[in-house]
Amino acid sequence: MVLPLTETAFAKINLALHIRQRRADGYHELETLFAFVDRGDRLTAQQSDHDELILSGEFAPQLTVPFDNIVSQALGKLPRPNGLKVALEKNLPVAAGLGGGSADAGAIFRLVRDNYGLPADWQAKAAALGADVPACVASIACIGRGTGTQLEPVENDLAGTSVLLVNPRVPLATGPVFASWDGQDRGALPQGPASQILAQGRNDLETPAISLCPEIAEVLGELAKTSAFTVRMSGSGATCFALYTDGDAMRGAAHRLAQNHPEWWLMQGALR
Fold first, then answer.
1. Helix locations, the chain, DSSP H
2. pLDDT digits (tens, 9 = 90+) for 20-40
């Protein structure tokens, strides 16, 4: 075991998100195309007598007290012969549709997997932490069904695509967005490789999210003025993404947006 251990908690985006119905338990049946950006939060772990979490980074003040953090919860679900002292550099905004907390938990599962192994029921343990956590463990493009925990492989012909993430720095809780969905089933997720699902898919939460956070519409409008071939909101918002055919176009768009909207959060990267 080589210490310290480091992992990136890769930002999650939903290239398409189709809501099919409300369930009796309060959750929603959905179909989504998960994808992951090659940047995100950063976790560094060292062996310790007990589990410990230290927070840093731009968005650390927005997190709950460490023992309530999903990283601490993930550590508590994974048996090991010793504790881990984890330093979490929080680079992703909170309540942003990027699965930031789920990505952090997924990174913990990878750290434990690679150095201690995971218990046989690790998938159930991951799902208990949140619907996005199972997908975030592998952090590769896949289809999610049910509440998002039933995962299927997908032909990932979008790997390496340049992506720009933009958030208006307005936190948006997931619950109210789902509650604002109009209940209309607009059809199943398309079939085919990731590019085809992206082209024919949609995000059913975009309209309800905009009703709660009008700034999303402004972000989408500004991104649409760039040379992106796809602009869409991720998850329940408020982060939006734009995909580009080359890195120069993406970097140029990021530079202009940063100048025109210095109050917005931006992250440049590529799809994994």
1. 70-77, 100-115, 122-129, 133-138, 174-179, 194-200, 206-212, 215-224, 247-260
2. 999 988 889 999 999 999 999
| Residue 236 · residue 96 · CB < 8 Å | no
Give the residue numbers annotated as catalytic, written as ranges. Answer: 12, 132
Phi, psi at 95, each rounded to 5°: 55, 55
The domain ranges of the chain are 5-153, 162-270
**pTM beyond 0.85, yes or no:** yes
> Which CATH code, of 3.30.230.10, 3.90.228.20, 3.40.47.10, 1.10.540.10, is assigned to 5-153?
3.30.230.10
CATH number belonging to the domain at 162-270, selected among 2.40.10.120, 3.20.20.70, 3.40.50.300, 3.30.70.890: 3.30.70.890
Can you give the pLDDT at residue 92?
97
CB count in 10 Å sphere of residue 102: 24
